[in-house]
Amino acid sequence: MDGILPLWKPKGMTSHDCVFKIRKMLKMKKVGHTGTLDPDVTGVLPICLGKATKIAEYITNAGKEYVGEVTLGFSTTTEDASGEVVQEKQVTRDINRQEIIDVLNSLQGEIQQTPPMYSAVKVNGKRLYEYARKGIEVERPSRWVHIYEIELLDEREVFTGENISFSFRVKCGKGTYIRTLAVTMGELLGYPAHMSALTRISSGSFSEKECVTFSDIEKGLEDHKLENYIQPLDRGLSHLPKMVINDTLAEKVLNGAVLPKDDFWTYGEQEVAVIYQNQVIAIYKIHPEKPYLIKPVKVLNG
Fold first, then answer.
1. Catalytic residue positions, numbered
2. What is the spatial distance between Cα 199 and Cα 66, in angstroms, rounded to a whole number?
3. Helix 178-189 vs helix 97-106: angle between axes, to the nearest 10 degrees?
4. For position 110, what pLDDT does the model report?
5. Which of 3, 145, 254, 272 has its CA 20 to 30 A from that of 155?
6. Is the model's pTM score more than 0.85?
7. Which domains are assigned to the chain?
8. Are 166 and 30 contacting, i.e. CB atoms less than 8 angstroms apart?
9. pLDDT at position 170 over 80
10. Smallest Cα–Cα separation from 191: which of 77, 110, 66, 70?
11. Which keywords does UniProt give here (predicted)?
């Protein structure tokens, strides 16, 4: 069973929990997820089955879209609603709509983030959350992330109250922490804040409307129609440039051959999905040491 199962992750489960459950349901070992979602977060979690596990990283690295809610007035250890309160500051003024829009606009483009202590980023071989659970604070490496689009979803003109909340939609690149983005929104508005709700509505080319639940999977197994829910492996690489090849070249590609770049390579430094008989059979890129050659990054049907 090879392909991608677009799962709608329920609240209360980790991404690993979802993989473990699907392994048991489908009775197969080669199952992997495509980007961690926190237990409190619901949404699109493409699950790779069989050969598709080879391309999980490409879905993980593709863009993602979220709908979230930020609450002003207090921050937490985890930067979301599940953590302990660490700082409080009552909102004592009205905040107008344009002020929030200006803050969101200022966060578009390349921004720098420091991962939260409760995250899966590794420092000195350990996950940050392992240090956090022991009460150990360590220096965290900042990184640049890309915010492609961000917009306010709340229609109010004026926001009032001791703890103001508002909803937003964000389209972002890999490695973006929406929890940290919510905290930054609060800081720019002058208040401690946390992410009070989050749903991932798309991951790569997979959207909410095509996702299945665990109940759907159970029914699909009972009715012997599970294949109706499984998307082809190629869907996970739809954002890569495509190069269609003939029979002669296909044999070399399937054997993982290094090839001369010649004149047919017009893709620059990008990785390219190699297509034969309407299927992706490999991913190639320019050889890092011999720029006159191209080499396989992955051979998918060898």
1. 38
2. 6
3. 130
4. 96
5. 145
6. yes
7. 3-62+204-236 (3.30.2350.10), 64-203 (3.30.2350.10), 240-299 (2.30.130.10)
8. no
9. yes
10. 70
11. Isomerase, tRNA processing
